[in-house]
Specification:
This protein is α+β, with helices and mostly antiparallel strands. The chain has one domain: Gcn5-related N-acetyltransferase (GNAT) (Aminopeptidase, 3-Layer(aba) Sandwich). About 25% of the residues lie in helices and about 25% in strands. Helix 1 links the parallel strand 1 and strand 2 (about 45-50). The radius of gyration is 15 Å and the shape is globular. The model is unreliable at about 105-128 (pLDDT under 50).
Length: about 130
Amino acid sequence: MVILRGAKEGEIWYLVEPESWGKGIATESVNHLLDFGFGELGLHRIWATCLPENPASARVMEKVGMRKEGFLLKNLKIHGVWKSGFLYAMLAEEWRHAPQIWRPNQGQLPDDARRVDLGQPREPQAAF
């Protein structure tokens, strides 16, 4: 999670190795980041982007309840090429008032999700 000093919003990023795709790792990770950002850090808004050619990433954000807010034209340079992306976001009040969304501290995943062992949890560290 990236948070500018003093900001009340954060940006999340994730990258999953291809051999681990389709195992629920990104969905569970994003849920943990949302829970940490809205819960522990008290953020107002969390956002993320994904490339149009990565519909699996868009599905992850939609599964956790993030809403598509727009399209950013050539906002990210990857390997020397400017890429456009979809913008997704969620507000703290949306997170609090969305009982259908699984949260890490609820202890159970939705029926269509699979639990993945992410290893031993580490102490949260603020990125300033």
